[in-house]
Design goal:
The structure holds two protein chains of two kinds. Chain A is an alpha+beta fold. Chain A is built from five helices and five strands. In chain A, a hairpin with a 2-residue loop joins strand 1 and strand 2. Chain B has 13 helices and twelve strands. The chains are: A alpha+beta, B alpha+beta.
Chain lengths: 159, 298
Amino acid sequence: MNKITVHCTVNHKPVAVEIDPNKRLLDMLREDLNLTSVKEGCSEGECGCCTVLFNGEPVTTCCMLAGQAEGADIVTLEGVSVDGKPDAVQEAFMEAGAVQCGFCIPGMILSTEALLAKNPNPTEEDAKKALSGNLCRCTGYAKIVAAVLLAAEKKRGEA
Amino acid sequence: MKPFDFYAPTTVDEALALLDQYKDSVAPIAGGTDLTLELNERKASPAVIVDLKKLKELDYIRMEDGKFHIGAMATHARIAADENIRKYARILHDATRQVGSPQIRNLGTIGGNIAQSSVAGDGLAACVTLNADVTLRSVRGERTMNINDFLAGEGKEKRNSLVADELLTEISFPVPDLKHTATAFYKLAKRKSLAISVIAGGLVVSVDDDGVCTYASMRAGALGRYPMHFATSEQYLVGKKLTYATMLEVLPIMHDQVLEANKSRPWSVFYKKEGVQGVFKKLFADVLGQLGIEEVQA
């Protein structure tokens, strides 16, 4: 097996990672780049815990080979905060009490970021649809959806 | 994951050369939503993986000469968001927008969905209902065939016609004439999201200016190895004036066909022989509404 070098932008910085190709993007982010906000849940694309933004769109990194990230722009939860401070979405999740165990939250927040980048005025239905690939086993989703709507208000400068 | 060598060509010709060179143990990877899991679980262990993600020349949706041409690397998300697909090929819009989750739709491709030919592939069920053509390419040349012939093929693992050095490159089908033709898809599943189809129903009907049915295509995925073809029901509708009442008359035929075909699977047949009728009621109401014939609540 020949090693490959994956060149991509991770959390706004260019990186070149030399790895064995038989790794998922999830493994490269966690093991080689130490980005442990990217969680491994179901390992089969069903739970959304390993979600990152890949060229701005949410994807599940357990379903991708690391080599497929060549040239991509990747954002994990670590890349969301601004100057080390939580951004509007993170603030909203805290204020709304949307977090219980927290394992699903990195994915939830990234799916929310992707939604709000495209749609600054989401309806409750839009929020539910945007988070439909992120499962939470603690909550009933009500506070998570509330957090998304609160985040939208914050981004619009209304809250 | 077992070791493999990884190549990410940027042109189709390069990809085909790699498939030819390593055809004894090679797997192309598109979105990766199936293959990555198989590799991770060691259910697949090819010596070489050829990534198709960089093949921008296979990522397109075009309307040309009365036909839709969809590149194999177009993702479900891209197809679901395409205005022309939404307007002219509702069946494919409704199938792709319900695949998996937003994350899966951003990764998974229509070409991968058809090449995998999974029992419950929603894109596959929609394309079979549309009677689409698929184009396969290798260093040996290009061939375009009807999707039914494609599925009947004896290629790799007898899944379909694809052989080891071949790539599925395009799906094409005529742009439906909306004045006379309507298409619809209905997914019956356990949840709204992240759900595998229990029944993936597809329907295409055409009527003449008097509302008489001139063509019907009735298919449903997840009822057999490949999308089930309700040929007798289609024949029943052709030549009749299309109304909801007429369409309901085929439900017993569909019931019997599902029962007969799935006798060996008693645990699912009791449910599916009833379910298929509910799915097609929805589809009938959908196409009748689109054609402006009748508004029905199904």
